[in-house]
Each structure stands twice: as structure tokens, then as C-alpha cells.
Amino acid sequence: MTTTPLLKVENLRIALDGDGVTYDAVENVSFEIGRGEAFGLVGESGCGKSITALSVMGLLRRPLSLAGGKIVLDGQEIQNVSAAEMRRLRGKRIAMIFQEPMTALNPLSPVGRQIAEMFVLHQGANWTEAMDRAEDALRQVRVPSPERRIKDYPHQLSGGMRQRVMIAIALACGPDLLVADEPTTALDVTVQAEIIDLMAELCAAKGTAVLMISHDLGLVANMCKRVAVMYAGRIVESQVADAIFAAPTHPYTQGLIDSLPRLGERAKRGRQKLREISGVVPSIANYPPGCRFNPRCPAVTDLCRSVVPEATPLPAEGLVRCHHHG
Amino acid sequence: MAEGLLSLDDLAVHFKVGNALGGGIKTLKAVDGVTLDVKPGECLGLVGESGCGKSTLALAIMGLLPPTRGTIGIDGQQISGSTPPDRMKMARTVQMVFQDPYASLNPRQTVRRTLADPLRLHGVTDKAEVEARVIDMMAKVGLRPEQADRYPHEFSGGQRQRIGIARALILKPKLVLCDEPVSALDVSIRAQIINLLLELKDEMGLAYIMISHDLGVVEHVSDRVAVMYLGRIVEQGGWQEIFENPRHPYTRALIAAIPDPFHRAAIGANAKARGEIASALNPPPGCHFNPRCPLKADVCTAEYPAFGEVSPGHRAACHFRDRVG
Q: Structure pTM?
């Protein structure tokens, strides 16, 4: 890519302070997101994907802290900007949607007011004008009868409607980047499909880039052009979304894709035993030396147990962090 | 009476909610007229979204909620609103594996105690025999004998679910209700538990009711599938029929909603449902699915469709069951 990317995360390190011990919760994480591009970060719970998102938002709080690396938004380094400056960026240039809309919304404030607040804070609108625009924003996320709904409190809305309100708030000021952390995990599957379609459509229309965080590789691959897979605080593989399904290179990615029963497989090939990934996800206090996947890897060698593999480019596009490739 | 292990006949479980002072008492029809049977050794997949009544149905089958209407026939025992179940006999027939292995194990009991208590309650008093059966059960679910004296917090999520499965199977039940058994687990652990459940089913000749919203899992494990929406079964049939020739628009919407890149174009985007599941307190008139349905016509708001046959063993409650697809 010749143009400067919208977001560039370089060698990000996030430290977790335990009692007198410091752990690396995220290590050497680097990725780029182009303008208007949807990028996915996939991994299991505890792999560091959510705190990576929080660090981009400048929302890391103790015991977590940024221990190194750069976060560059549109040419400007934002990892060390003042709290006041970060507040100006948040909501205006970068916005976030959280997993559970009930806990992310203010329960004591009508949803219209929570949307209108964005226009007042970031664009200097007065409240009357802002409330009108909030109604429009609700209409855009296809909440039925928005003129009545703006007066509703979050508890009066269903889960899907609340997440629509969250999207309306996040996209209110037309941010350059939307960070979506498991935006549909708390929703039913048919509602999830609707919300994802809505997010993709609105972001495409407004030219908003998306950093999508999820444990669901299928969901991310459907929405994003490029995907990075995280395991135990490191990115182990990043590729074009379609390629990662067709030809995953890292044993962890391969294992993930093979281990899930896929619709239509049984009809084609009969019921096969699912391929298991042995062992469990290591806890942060017990990350193994070398490649962190080595205790679970079918192709483990002595090298894997001692040396951390470097990120090596793949023949086409993408990177993989495995001694057996590149 | 057929040779079925479990047969539900027009089962309904209603709850009274609200109070007489504010708003009045309403009836919540959590399960409303479910007819279903499960044969020995068979796995029935039960699919539906939150609020559709799957968990209430499971609790009724367990004998933990009395039916408001209809009967539950289970291994020769008939349960209805007026004839409560014999709890001890039920426990030897039907058991349950819960969704959250962190919340469903007693944190103050060792694995040994969790597995031995049911045996003692059911009359296995010989110490050596209890011990042998506990260790044998642990081995079956992939736990080592020396782990018997540990507490739940010393285990990972996947191992805890193994303990939950061992507890369900220790009395050698005939039917096991698995309520979302893998959805609380890490993605890379799920295959282990699914494989284990299938192995144990063959080994012990168990019948399962697999409750899940993950259609990939349901297709993988089920012999037959029932789809539930707002308290009723809307479609039921062999697994292949349901997944390859779904006749209820809700089933089609569920399949269309799966974000699977390999399956992307199998069912068109127009099969997707609009909006959200209605409240069971106030279900829409006619077919409950009509406000979300892409095929909605006048007849759909006027009358609830019959649960008609599409082909032998395959039924769908849709006015347009012969036209869908």
C-alpha cells in the first residue's frame, strides 16, 4: 500500500501488573487498517484482542498499561496524547461499540439524549437541533418509530434495538474508525445477522473503517477483508479473509477451522470425528517459552519450545508466526 | 403407547406473571402444545433463540416444572399436572448437562463427592463399588483418577464440563438433556467435548436432546431436529431434511443467519428474518412468526397454521410449507 494507512499499530505491548510481577498481556502486535477498510481481529477469550482494541481507544486502565509500541491514527501518534486530546478524538475520529449494550448505555438517560450528546460535545450543536439529529440517527439504524423511541430508556428496548442505539451513537459524528468489540455476541443469531448487515452497510456508506473484534472466525471473515488471528497475546497469522479459510497456515488457525462442525459437511462426507486441538489455552502467568502454541501443536519441535518465531511474510499477502513456514 | 423413550403429548407450561394490583395477571405461555418423541439411543436437536421456551421444555422433561396441560411419558412413567413424577425414578432415567460449567458445579465439593453422592442416594452403599464406579466414570470422560479429590476451581472450563457430563452419566440414565453444552467453552475446546458426547452416546446407548443455537453443532450430532419458536415446534424432521430442505421460513432464516463463508450462498439473503422475537406474553395473532416473515400473507395473521406433513417424518407449521423453497 502506498497511501498512509488510517490506523497503524506497531509493536504494541500491553503490560499486566500482577502482585509485584509484570506480565506481557499483548506482545509485538502490529497491523494496519486502510481508510474505509474492515479489519478483523480474532481469538479466544484471554488472547488480548479486547485490550488491543481498548489501547487504540486510549482506554487502558490499571492494572493494564501500554508498555511499548506506537498507535498512529492518520499520521498522528496517539499513544501518548493528553487525556483531553484523547477525549476529543474519541467519538469524533474513533468510536467504539461494546459487547453488552445494556451495560454500555447509561440506564438513567433516554437514548435520544445519549445520541444527541455526541452532536453537542463534538460539533457544538444546541440541544434542540441535536435531538432532531438524534431522531435521524435512530432512523438510519432502522429503529421503528424513532420519534417515540428517542424518549425511551435503555431498559425499554430489546437487545437488538439497544445495539442499534450503540451504533447510532458510535457513528453519529462520522468517525474515521469504528472499533466493534464482539458487537453481536450477546444477541440471537437472526438478530446478529441483521446487526452485522446494518453495520457493514452504514460503514460502507460513510467510508468508516472498522476494527472488528470477535471469537467467531466465520463472522469476521464475512464482514472483513483482512483478518488477524491472535493467540496468547500475539498475532499468529494475518491474511486475506477468504484465504484464511481456504489455506490457513498457522497450526492454531488450521486447528480452529478444522475443529468446528461446519454446516453441510455431514451431508457431503458423513459424520467425521471433529479434529481436536489438544490441551487448553495457557493462562497469562504460565505462557510457555518459544512459540506459545507449542504445547498444543501437532508439529512441535525443539526449536518451537525455545525460540519465539518471527512474523514471516506469506507467498501471497499476509504474515505468519511459525517456525514451519517461511 | 409407542416404543418411544420420551413422548410429549400436547405439553404446555404456562406461568402467571404480574400482580393483581399493577396491570393485572397475565399468562406467559412458555411452552404451548408441544408434541414430540425421542426413541432410545436417538439424538434430537432442539433449536431456537432465547425466549423460545427450550429451557422451560427441558425443565418440564426433567420433572422440575409441572405441566399446565398435556402429558410427558418417560420410560413408562406418565407425568401430568395432576400426577407428579417419582423424583428418584426420574433421576435414574433422565439427567441434564448444563451450559455453564462454572455455575453448575458445587464449588465446595470435590469431584469424588459430586460423583459419589448420587450413587449413595440411589442405594449403592458398598464403598469399593462406589469408588470403582467413580473412577470408571472419570476415565470415561477423560479425567485421571488422581484428580478425584480436587475442587472445581482447580479445573479448566473444558475439564469442568467433563465433570458435569460425568455427574449426569453416573446413574446410567437413558436420556440426557444437553443445554448448550459447549457455548460457554473456548472455541478450541468445543471439539473435544462434542467428540466426547458422541463417543459416550454410542458406548452407553444414550439418547440426547441437544439444545443449541449453533446449527453447525446441531447438524453434526443430531438424528432428528426440532425447531422451536415462541413456545411451539414450528418444524421437525430428519437432520438432512431440516438442513437441506427447510420448509418453515424461520428455519430458513436461522440457516441464512449463519456466518459461514463456505455456506455463504446456500440460502439467499432474502430468507433472513426481520426484527426480533416477540414477547411470549403477547404473541402476534395467527402464526407467531408473521411479523418477521418474508412470506407473510393475510392468512398468516388470521390463523395459526397446522403442523402439516411435508414428507414422512418431516412436518412444518407454515401455511406455505409446500411453497417455501
A: 0.88
